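Hi L.,

You mentioned the student needs an example of a multi-chain input paired with its predicted structure. This one should do, with 387 residues in total across all chains.
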Amino acid sequence: MRAHQPGSEPIDIPETIPNPVVVPKPTPTPKEPTPKEPGRIPEKVP
Amino acid sequence: MTYRYSLEDLLALVRGHAPAKVDTVALHRRRVEHGQLSVGLKIHSLGDGRQFSTLVEGLGGAQKILDVNYYKHSHASLCLVLPPVSSARSAILLLECIEHFTGSAIFTNPEIQIQVCSPGRLGARRSALLGIGFYLGSDTLRRYTLGDLATSFAERQPYPRGRRLVLYDAAGDFDRNFDWWRASGKHCLVEPQLPFENGRSDLLTGSGSRLDIENINLLATLLVHAQYQGYWGQLGMQLQEEMEALLERHLLNGLVDAPWVRTDDPESDDDDRFFAALQELVAYAFEESVRIKKKDRLFPGWHEILTRSSRGILQEVQSLLQKYRSELVKQSRLLEQEGRA
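Structure written out for the whole complex:
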């Protein structure tokens, strides 16, 4: 096991990895939607 | 599921931090989506659980909320049981409301384990398919030790549940008041209650995601309907056959014979036999992921080729879940249209 020899990098076995075939969905921003601005009434042209 | 508070109490408490989401959950609390099963959740906190203190106090204190529940993950400081809601969507929103309130992440947080609870006890074989489908369909591939699956009920009598991904209930409170789509010939009869007085199949996801909740809800719906003559029973049988064929193609069909859930059958009490099967699945999935990454480096754009040719198990499971999700929604919309006509 070369990687266990002194001076070499230790073997890194991750406990979890991303599933490579799952396309990550954008995570929803942890915000509540801001209240809509009140609709603006166009000014009347004289 | 033992909890001594109502969903309304919880929603009222967290409303100030997430009013729009709380209102959506409240509005849809009993409205099942496409005849899918209701969803219960348990949150196991592997850290000190301090982020939940205000929430627990607001719901009546640890003695009332937490101590009544003997069940929790062996490494957890607390297990918060949430009242069941009508759908995966509402369950996700409810967890997001709690995230807003506590200011701390629940999804894909290594210190939080999410347990997804589905009504109805699945038989041994279908429990195996639920566990395997969850694992391969998840956005995270995980390695486990048997200790990761230990709970306070692993050996506790009279409901020893073993160390498993799939766990039956321990005959606690059960909320039946969700619509059940029953098959009547080719017709669908909507009944106001679930057809069982008690019984659940839970899945200990570990550090879980939104996709995990959606996938478990889909798989559990189809498999439970197949077992209890629900409207989606035929689709569930078809899923079961396709999953078994898929496992056979990958020479993994023997995995289904392992005891993925501990039932009343004494032969199902062998944690090691289950764990050997889980490890075989994990090794296969990790190997597959290495193969995909290598291909990705050598042949960029291979994903498009794969969609047309023989694919690996991870891709096949994604396609399978996608296919059944679309089919269920399509058929449910047709039913809706017929109902309106």
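You could point out the following to them. Chain B has a mean pLDDT of 91. The two ends of chain B are 41 Å apart (CA to CA).

Best wishes,
N.
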